[in-house]
Design brief:
With about 220 residues, the protein is an alpha+beta fold. Helix content is about 20%, strand content about 50%. It is built from three helices and nine strands; from the N terminus they run ααββββαβββββ. Strands 1, 2, 3, 4, 5, 6, 7, 8 and 9 form a nine-stranded antiparallel β-sheet that branches. The chain starts with a helix and ends with a strand. Keywords: Signal. This is YceI family protein. It holds the Pfam family YceI.
Length: about 220
């Protein structure tokens, strides 16, 4: 009986052993699962996204609203995320006259700029977060790289940001500089229309963001 029992127990123990025994890749995957990323939901009502566009004779500024999104958190660091912007919420804030304001908003919505009727949302998906050893003078502690999609065109961009995770909240703030011509927004660009003089609009505009997400 003993001769039968010992081999049987050995067989059971082998069958019960982890499936990644002797398989480093599987063991690594199992280890990753133990430290699984947590998903935090973007809070549009607590988040802001402002824009500034400059031209030879001045500048205009305004804002748009986040529609939804999620942030991936590992430990106390942001490691990923996807964000959706409601382009229909686009506003101009520096022009007080209602008619002039409306005309500029209408132009920004048109095919010359963001073609909002055809492209009601813009998206940004984080592909890499590089933590800085020391925060810069502005308090930025990370460089974020991701895929920005405007007018159905996707381009990779990188920008500095201040990120943090605490008490069930994840936040990121900073300013990204965008070359609009890479998204087929060429209206008023000297890069394509050399003779427009002081009517030229700069190719680059900035997006200043403050994103808040809750677990």
């Amino acid at each position: 009986m003993k001769k039968i029992l010992v081999p049987a127990l050995l067989a059971v123990s082998l069958l019960a052993a982890p499936v990644y025994a002797g398989n480093p890749a599987a063991a690594k995957a199992a280890s990753s699962l133990k430290a699984a990323d947590k998903t935090y939901k973007v809070q549009p009502q607590l988040s802001t996204l402002g824009w500034v566009g400059k031209k030879v004779t001045g500048q205009h500024d305004g804002n748009v609203q986040f529609k939804d999104g999620s942030v991936m958190v590992r430990g106390n660091q942001i490691v990923g995320g996807t964000f959706v912007v409601d382009m229909n919420s686009l506003k101009v804030t520096d022009i007080k006259d209602a008619d002039t304001n409306g005309k500029l908003v209408g132009h920004l919505r048109s095919e010359d700029f963001f073609s909002i009727d055809k492209n009601p949302t813009a998206t940004f998906k984080i592909t890499k977060v590089a933590t800085l050893k020391k925060a810069d003078a502005a308090g930025n502690n990370a460089n974020i790289t991701g895929d920005l999609t405007i007018k159905g065109i996707t381009q990779s961009i990188t920008f500095p940001a201040k990120t943090g995770v605490k008490g069930g909240l994840a936040s990121a703030s900073g300013t990204a500089t965008i070359d609009r011509t890479k998204f087929d927004i060429k209206y008023g660009s000297k890069s394509f229309f050399e003779s427009i003089g002081d009517k030229a609009i700069m190719d680059e505009f900035t997006l200043s963001f403050n994103v808040v997400a809750k677990q």
